[in-house]
Amino acid sequence: MPIRLLQLTDLHLFGDPHGQLLGITTRGSFEAVLELALSSDAQPSAIVVSGDLVHDETPAGYRYLRETLKRTDLPHYCVAGNHDDVGLMQEHLGSAALGSVALRRLRSWNLVFLDSSVSGQEGGHLTAAQLNQLQDLLEENRAPTAIFLHHHPVPIQSAWMDTMGVDNGSELIALCDRNPHIKALVFGHIHQSFSAKHGECSILGAPSTCFQFLSGSKDFAIDDSPPGYRELTLYPDGSLATKVVRLEHYAELPLHQVGGY
């Protein structure tokens, strides 16, 4: 049986259930996307939440996320984003909050999770220790591997966003070249769908569960595309299939604010 992963990202939750960001009530949009993701006839294997979980760094926001994910009865894995408080994540999400480098084995695949967040910075970085540990893990087990992190390790051709990726992403790409059993690099942060190939490795970004950024934009810009998620299907032979799924309609439209948030 293949593995079906649901990637939800950039939730930007608040402790207040009615908390909004750019006009979107982020709990409401997250719940709508999660309901859509769980509505398929195909049973999900696990949920990956790839950063920017809670926007206002409140314990209540993380507790809400913990209880919501727990109710799915699915394994779930959370990595930190630039808006997260790692200490609060660990305190309130427990074992679902993954550390600097984490490996989870799911049937014939290895799922590796990297914390690319840097305290006080919008962009990301992977330390030499993280990259060395990752290389050691890859040498120990040559199973097909998908790597998840928050920040994008390659340019997405959006000038303002590309100043906030992994600043040494080329080192992660070089590591993929040395380890062809890495089949996918999967990230959040960019609030839009992105798909590219580097050799046999798929490089994949996902829409946010709240508001979206305009693809290919030189400056900060909002897109009216509805919230969504990415689904990955991982096969025993090391191949994968993936698609982005969005809500058909969402009642709230984001505010087209100039300059960021």
UniProtKB/TrEMBL annotation:
* Ranges annotated as spanning the membrane: none
The alphabetical list of record keywords is: Hydrolase, Iron, Metal-binding
What one GO molecular function would you report for this record?
cyclic-nucleotide phosphodiesterase activity
Q: Does the keyword Disulfide bond apply?
A: no
Domain Calcineurin-like phosphoesterase, first and last residues per copy:
4-192
Say which domain of life the source belongs to.
Answer: Bacteria
Keyword Isomerase applies? no
Under the heading SUPFAM superfamilies, the entry gives:
Metallo-dependent phosphatases
The signal peptide, as residue positions, is: none
Q: Which Pfam families match?
A: Metallophos
**Family indicated by similarity:** Belongs to the cyclic nucleotide phosphodiesterase class-III family.
What PANTHER family does this protein's entry cite? Answer: CYCLIC NUCLEOTIDE PHOSPHODIESTERASE CBUA0032-RELATED, PHOSPHOHYDROLASE
Q: What is this protein called?
A: Phosphoesterase
